[in-house]
Amino acid sequence: MGSTVLSLRIDSELLDRLKGHAAKRGMSVQDYVVRTLIREDFDERFKTAVEETEKFYGAEPEPPGAGAAPRDQVRPSAGIA
User: Vertex 67, ends 63 and 71: CA angle to 5°?
Assistant: First the structure.
């Protein structure tokens, strides 16, 4: 995989914050920013994949607080007694 240059103009306040975050992790500002972008890109792709899977299988999201069915309502699978 090759690399390409991306030039950004940011204000000094933001750069100072980025330097601080990077220093806490022992990273350069460049590495910190790239890592953050990669993580954000992964999060977006993962969310999209989950949504596409739910659309494919027709799954509807569970309402908050919904959990497994009570034990007396669970039916055994075929062939299991």
Answer: 140
